[in-house]
What does this fold into?
Amino acid sequence: MRTHFLPQTALGKWSVILSGISLLANIIFIILALRGNLNSESSPPWIGATISITVFAAFATGILAIFWRKERAFLVYLGMLAQALIFILGEFQVAH
It folds into this structure.
């Protein structure tokens, strides 16, 4: 099976789109935090919820695309790696 750069299946495309949304939400969160507009008490809940939902959805659709639809696109693997890193770093950086 050939490896492509762009995804060929619908699940692979959704995985890449959700990964992009998640990364964009993370960038927005970081920019707001660096500007001093966010702290632990005043951060809007929609940013955290968007990041959490899209990270999980991107990773889950990536797993389904790889194992169920035999997707072999580089961007799907890269997006899943990014989502795993975001999840792991977020768990270590945020006090629960």
Observations:
- Helices lie at 10-34, 45-67, 74-93.
